[in-house]
Amino acid sequence: MPEQPKREKQTRKARWHGYGTTRWRKMRARLLALHPLCVECTGIATVLDHITAVRDGGDPWAESNLQSLCESCHNSKSGRESHAPRTYGPQRRQRG
Ligand SMILES: [Zn+2]
């Protein structure tokens, strides 16, 4: 009986390791210079953000998949992506 090679478990989400590279830094600097304002609040952008996350199949190097965000908009976007959606409806009150 041939032994099947064990496949690495892909329990962890594949992370893109491009952020530390010179290529990314150059691209980030170039695009932030071209688009210096946050697309959400028109504040000063400091973050180059992937519109479609790389882990969701977005192209990390496509300019069409990149947008400028300020830090606070980027944080709130990341928050929206990683947390369960908030409910804004009236909260149930406990009646004693
Ligand atoms: Zn912003």
Question: Keyphrases for this structure?
Answer:
single chain, 96 residues, flat
What does this protein look like?
Strands 1-2 form a two-stranded antiparallel ribbon. The chain has a domain at 22-79: Wheat Germ Agglutinin (Isolectin 2), domain 1. The protein is of the alpha+beta class. The protein has two helices and two strands; from the N terminus they run αββα. It is 26% helix and 8% strand. The chain is flat, with a radius of gyration of 19 Å. The termini are far apart. The structure holds zinc ion. The site of zinc ion has 8 residues, from α2.
Task: Summarize the SSE layout with pairings.
Blueprint: H1 22-34, E1 47-50, E2 66-69, H2 71-82
Antiparallel strand pairs: 1-2
The structure holds zinc ion (ZN).
Zinc ion binds next to helix 2.
Beta-strand content: 5-15%
Query: Share of helix among residues?
Result: 25-40%
Strand order of the largest sheet: 1-2
CATH architecture of the domain at 22-79: 2-Layer Sandwich
Ions and ligands: zinc ion
> How many strands, what sense, and barrel or not for the largest sheet?
2 strands, antiparallel
Output the CATH topology of the domain at 22-79.
Wheat Germ Agglutinin (Isolectin 2), domain 1
Number of helices: 2
Query: How many beta-strand segments?
Result: 2
Alpha-beta classification: alpha+beta
Distance between the termini: 66 Å
Average pLDDT value?
83
Return residue spans where pLDDT drops below 50 for at least 5 consecutive residues: none
Shape: flat
Cα-atom Rg, whole angstroms? 19 Å
Provide the succession of SSEs. HEEH
Determine and state the CATH class of the domain at 22-79: Alpha Beta
